[in-house]
C-alpha cells in the first residue's frame, strides 16, 4: 500500500520520487516503532514495590 500510495502521489501531485521515498521510509519507521512499543510495553515510573521486603 505504501508503494501504491507513493506512485499515486507522484502522478497526481507531481511530487518527486525521492520525496515519496522519504515519506514511505518515515511511515515504515513509525509503524515499526509503534509495533515495538506496543509489544514491549515500556512503562515509566515506579512499579509499586515499595514496602515489600
Automatic annotation (TrEMBL):
Residue spans crossing the bilayer: 20-40
Alphabetic keyword roster: Membrane, Transmembrane, Transmembrane helix
Domain of life: Bacteria
Designated name of the protein: ABC-type uncharacterized transport system, permease component
Amino acid at each position: 500500500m505504501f508503494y501504491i500510495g507513493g506512485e499515486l502521489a507522484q502522478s497526481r501531485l507531481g511530487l518527486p520520487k525521492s520525496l515519496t521515498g522519504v515519506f514511505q521510509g518515515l511511515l515504515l519507521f513509525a509503524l515499526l516503532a509503534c509495533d515495538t512499543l506496543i509489544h514491549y510495553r515500556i512503562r515509566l515510573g515506579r512499579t509499586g514495590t515499595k514496602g515489600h521486603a
